[in-house]
Design goal:
The structure holds 2 protein chains of 2 kinds.
Chain A: H1 16-22, H2 57-60, E1 65-66, E2 69-70, H3 73-84, H4 113-132, H5 134-141, H6 151-166, H7 172-179, H8 182-188, H9 191-204, H10 206-209, E3 210-211, E4 216-217, E5 224-226, H11 229-240, H12 247-254, H13 261-272, H14 275-289, H15 298-318, E6 331-335, H16 336-342, E7 351-355, H17 368-372, H18 382-393, H19 418-424, H20 429-443, E8 457-458, E9 461-465, E10 469-472, E11 475-478, H21 479-490, H22 493-506, H23 513-526, H24 534-543, E12 549-552
Parallel strand pairs in A: 1-12
Antiparallel strand pairs in A: 2-3, 4-5, 5-12, 6-7, 8-9, 10-11
Chain B: H1 29-34, E1 40-46, E2 66-67, H2 76-80, E3 87-93, E4 97-98, E5 108-109, H3 117-122, H4 139-147, E6 156-159, E7 180-183, E8 186-189, H5 196-203, H6 212-239, H7 245-266, H8 297-301, H9 309-325, E9 331-335, H10 346-349, H11 355-358, H12 366-393, E10 406-412, E11 434-439, E12 451-454, H13 461-470
Parallel strand pairs in B: 1-9, 1-10, 3-12, 4-5, 6-9
Antiparallel strand pairs in B: 2-12, 3-11, 7-8, 10-11
Helix pairs in contact in B: 5-9, 6-7, 9-12
Classes of the chains: A alpha+beta, B alpha/beta.
Chain lengths: 557, 489
């Protein structure tokens, strides 16, 4: 087996300084105006295509490109739940969503027969469930048909539900076309047969499956468009809720009350009071830090996820504390099993907040959810933990290993302690460049195993004592508490979490200069090391004028 | 079967028992038989190597060459299924490798995992930058361009393994695809259908149950599906011109697929004649299992990293067999397992590890490890073999068997031998000593029945070339030329 020191190569001469600058080694590695809809005509549009509002250059300089985004399986399920009250497992039928680490990167989405037919079957499933259940059916239809083919009630239904499904009012033309489906009621002798067809169609509609943004051209800014109010409502709701706009939000858009900065702030603040915002912020953290799924028995995995969600809920939504408190919390929310797992006092009751006391734990980085992520071969991986911190929390790039390193084969030789192996083998020759960026971080967390259990010796060799001493960019630390403090002081965390939020909001993981300008403008305001309230940051984010603009992509992937 | 004008609606009904509600048939299987039975192409992919670290042999390659070859552990299903005489084994092949900038034709980038897949399925050398996407069209798409023009489905692209089962799960990325098509010089990945239920519903669209009440309901549903899709197509067509260039391209692709669905909905189901029958509905899909980390034997014992792939493979195999039989399609690709497959081996053959880890001492080394690894290979061979067996036993239009008019290939992600990444001489991270299976008799393929043919220094994609030529597709894959000549009659 060849480990990294074994072979010279073009990266052999890379110095640590070069590494930080260039990587560890030098090997290669309107609706033609507005919100009118597809059947739109200029007369029907609610925005004047000719007289778009001008935008300051400073704002234009932070408008990144955006493209057509398909609902993820999770967004799909949330959307049909909010629209119709039904539960579906959309992941069974839709093509899988890639994690980059967020699951909504539209540049990875390619339409296929699998998508079209999966979406058709899902639409059929939902329509069938709704029509078969009297309560769901009545709620969806919203009026009581007085005859088998009650055209007035059916028209009322397609007008109302069409607006909710497509996230904008239907045009008169569209209403006519969908209202024509009432012939299906005549044909089947059943009003709800027509309802079923309309549901099937609207749930396969491209403006349901995709978030289509057209907007109005911004004067003197080729390729830049101002979103219509309904398009902005959808941007807000899918970012803050992961689901479709509520009727109330659509009402605001209908009334032109989602247009000014003040309008948007008010709407966003109201949305953040909704339970969907908690779930969405939780999902952001889970995808970001890699604990959406944990490789443990289901009970342990869900207890860990609940622990982290409880902390996020408390800090961000209940106590209104700075987001940074996620990394400073001195208590954690556990059930008896998880408390025992961590070696903490049992909670009073089924689940409760328990003090960390002198355990050396502090905040989210002490959670099993975080410490389980990126484990390897029945043990923690100092390297992979280092990658997690560098790439996800500091937004730094670490190139993949050089081609002559076998990444599957990192076990220390028989008789060598793991820590010694990492401190000697990985610190030599070609290895040192990259591993020097990663391993010292992970070694500082080594007293916590891949399930987050505290230890002082190696799991499979009690003669190997774990020092738990690590460092980040030369600053020594030991354990999650000290790592949290180092990260908070580093000046990279605030910028990075904002970048990650931006990726999540825009559905694109590859960022460009325009995107960085948006992130930078927010970070400049909040300060690199300052505490911030996450809900305030989210409101600041969505009320930036650039959030209501889009820049057209010139060509697809 | 020619795509019909959408105004031409179903003029007859036919039940599973051949119960005719209305006539006439427009294009019977007998009529097709007059022009010769159709040729079918199948590609199976196994995300596994076939050797074990430290061993200079595997349990797939027979000792004897030619017909009646000896069967070792990894090929045991061929004997169990009684199909050895129909399946040839081509061995001793390799995919060349090189570093970025000097990857040879048809080669892979040094840096093992999943880098062999792109050249294997496309014949075009892998990308320099380490992405694992095929750089050329794949054989199922190329075959479908020739064979898939007159069938309801141009091709079936299926995957058995439901999720990646590692890390945040769900995301196999390029490791979960083996089908790519060439859209005017741009190579576009094609997502497989993974849900057996979706595969069934898609394939048997238009088939009508024999029970009159069920038949009426099925027709009513078909009518609703058409009405809905018609409306959506019109809406999409209106929307496309309003989009920017990139979005227009994205939605056009969506529209094209939707149009294909509309055309499928407008076609008549083939007559239920001979062996063509409506299979029973497979029911709801098995739930998708969660991720398991390496070495977590409790996780494997507890059924993680598993979504009943055994059942999924059986259903999808039955669907391919029936699709070929009914001439619903003439081309199918089946990704049994993803590249670097983390599927739980415990429910499949009682090894509490995943397929990938079996090759890394997941259940031990030495003979135990080699046997476990071979059992993983055999699991793929068994499902491929079951398809071969089914097709052998199904009479075709011309009185021969469907297998007589088919060419079916099974390829593996890796072989064993030198690993330029680690420098190990006997590694599973190697594209040396690669083998492939090829079955069927289309175009005189396998004139001597199932044989063992060493193809030393050959490229495994040559086996794909051989199958394509057998089914009359005049194409050699990407940068890989040549066929295994002795297998062509």
């Amino acid at each position: 087996m060849r480990r990294c020191k074994g072979r010279g190569g073009p990266w052999a001469a890379a110095s640590v300084a070069l590494v930080l600058a260039t990587g560890c080694y030098t090997g290669r590695d309107g609706w033609a105006g507005g919100d009118g809809g597809t059947g739109d005509t200029a007369a029907e549009s609610d925005t004047d295509a000719d007289g778009g509002e001008p935008v300051d250059q400073a704002v234009l300089d932070r408008v990144g490109v955006s493209g057509l985004r398909r609902l993820t399986a999770v967004e799909y399920a949330a959307t049909v739940h909010d629209l119709l009250g039904v539960e579906v497992d959309a992941a069974l039928l839709l093509p899988e969503d890639w994690r980059q680490p967020f699951d909504n990167d539209y540049t990875t989405q390619v339409a296929s027969q699998a998508l079209i037919e999966g979406a058709e079957l899902l639409a059929a499933d939902v329509a069938t469930l709704v029509v078969a259940d009297e309560a769901l059916r009545e709620a969806a239809v919203g009026c009581t048909p007085e005859s088998t083919a009650d055209a007035a009630c059916f028209r009322e239904f397609v007008t109302r539900f069409g607006r909710r499904a497509l996230r904008r009012p239907l045009t008169a033309t569209e209403i006519e076309r969908y209202a024509g489906l009432v012939v299906e009621a005549e044909h089947a002798g059943d009003f709800h047969a027509a309802v079923e067809v309309a549901l099937r169609a609207l749930l396969q509609h491209p403006e349901f499956l995709y978030r289509v943004e057209l907007g109005t051209p911004v004067p003197d800014a080729p390729g830049v468009f101002r979103l219509g109010d309904h398009e902005l409502a959808a941007r807000l709701s899918y970012f803050l809720w992961g689901s479709t706009p509520s009727d109330a939000l659509l009402d605001l858009a209908d009334a032109g009350q989602l247009h000014t900065t003040e309008d948007i702030i008010a709407a966003a603040e109201s949305m953040l009071d909704d339970p969907r915002a908690r779930a969405r912020v939780g999902r952001f953290h889970a995808l970001w830090l890699g604990y959406e799924q944990l490789p443990h028995a289901p009970a342990l995995a869900s207890a860990m996820q609940a622990e982290t969600q409880a902390l996020i809920d408390r800090v961000v939504f209940e106590d209104g504390l700075p987001w940074q408190e996620l990394l400073r919390a001195e208590e954690t929310f556990v059930d008896a099993t998880l408390a025992e797992h961590y070696g903490l006092p049992a909670p009073a009751g089924a689940s409760a907040w328990v003090s960390y006391g002198e355990s050396g734990r502090q905040g989210l980085l002490s959670h099993g959810a975080f410490l389980s992520a990126m484990a390897k071969v029945d043990d923690s991986s100092p390297t992979k933990r280092g990658i997690l911190v560098r790439t996800r929390m500091m937004c730094q790039d670490i190139p993949p290993p050089p081609p002559n390193v076998n990444v599957d084969d990192t076990e220390p030789p028989e008789g060598t302690c793991k820590e010694e192996f990492y401190r000697t083998e990985h610190a030599q020759g070609n290895c040192a460049g990259c591993h020097g960026l990663m391993d010292p971080i992970g070694l500082g967390l080594e007293q916590y195993d891949h399930r987050g259990v505290f230890r002082t010796v190696e799991n499979d060799d009690p003669t190997c004592v774990i020092s738990g001493e690590g460092s980040l960019d030369g600053v020594p630390f030991s354990g999650p508490a000290e790592l949290s403090d180092v990260l908070l002081d580093s000046g990279t965390l605030n910028r990075c979490v904002t970048r990650q939020l931006y990726r999540f909001a825009m559905g694109r993981s590859e960022l460009q200069a325009l995107d960085d300008a948006f992130v930078g403008s927010i970070v400049d305001e909040m300060g690199l090391q300052a505490d911030f309230d996450l809900t305030e940051l989210l409101v600041r984010f969505v009320s930036d004028e650039a959030f209501a603009l889009r820049r057209e992509e010139e060509e697809g992937q | 079967m020619v795509l019909r004008n959408r105004t031409f609606r179903r003029s007859f009904l036919r039940g599973a028992a051949g119960f005719t509600l209305a006539l006439p048939l427009l294009e019977s299987m007998q009529a097709k038989a007059a022009t010769g039975a159709p040729q079918r192409y199948f590609l199976g992919f196994a995300g596994s190597s076939i050797g074990f670290p430290g061993f200079d042999y595997d349990q797939l390659v027979p000792d004897a060459t030619g017909a009646g070859y000896d069967v070792k552990r990894a090929l045991q299903p061929l004997l169990d299924l009684g199909i050895r005489d129909s399946v040839s084994v081509v061995t001793g092949m390799e995919i060349p490798w090189g570093d970025a900038g000097s990857v040879p034709a048809g080669g892979r980038v040094r840096n093992w995992h999943a880098k062999s897949v792109a050249p294997l399925i496309s014949g075009v050398r892998g990308a320099d930058d380490g992405n694992e996407r095929a750089q050329g069209a794949t054989s199922d798409q190329i075959a479908a361009d020739v064979l898939g023009q007159d069938t309801v489905h141009r091709l079936l692209a299926y995957r058995v393994q439901a999720a990646y089962y590692r890390g945040s799960n769900g995301d196999g990325g390029d490791r979960g695809r083996i089908s790519y098509r060439d859209e005017g010089g741009t190579i576009v990945p094609v997502d497989p259908i993974v849900s057996p239920r979706l595969a069934y519903e898609s394939l048997f669209t238009g088939f009508v149950p024999p029970d009159p009440a069920q038949a009426a309901e099925a027709l009513a549903v078909l009518r609703r599906r058409r009405s809905a899709v018609d409306l959506v197509l019109e809406d999409a067509q209106t929307l496309i011109p309003k989009l920017g260039a990139a979005d227009r391209q994205r939605l056009q692709r969506h529209f094209d697929e939707l149009r294909s669905l509309e055309q499928r909905l407008d076609q008549e189901a083939p007559p239920l004649e001979g062996a063509c029958e409506l299979l029973p509905h497979p029911g709801d899909d098995p739930a998708i299992g969660g991720a398991v980390e390496n070495g977590d034997t409790d996780g494997y014992a507890g059924g993680g990293a598993y979504s009943n792939e055994q059942l999924r493979a059986e259903i999808l195999t039955d669907l391919v067999a029936m699709a070929f039989t009914c001439d619903l399609t003439r081309v199918a690709s089946m990704m049994y397992t993803m590249a670097q497959c983390f599927l739980n081996a415990n429910p499949l053959f009682g090894q509490p590890s995943d397929m990938h880890e079996l090759g890394h001492f997941g259940v031990g080394g030495g003979q135990v490890g080699l046997d476990a690894m071979s059992d993983g290979v055999a699991w793929h061979v068994a499902h491929y073999g079951r398809l071969v067996q089914r097709l052998r036993d199904i009479p075709d239009l011309d009185g021969s068997s469907v297998l007589d008019n088919s060419a079916l290939v099974l390829v593996f992600e890796g072989g064993w031998g030198y690993d330029p990444e680690s420098g190990d001489a006997l590694s599973v991270h190697s594209s040396e000593n690669m083998s492939a299976l090829i079955a069927g008799h289309a175009g005189g393929l396998n004139p001597n029945g199932g044989v063992h043919v060493p193809n030393p220094g050959g490229h495994p994609t040559q086996v794909i070339n051989t199958a394509l030529r057998a089914v009359g597709v005049d194409h050699e894959m990407g940068e890989v030329s040549g066929v295994v000549g002795s297998l062509l009659g």
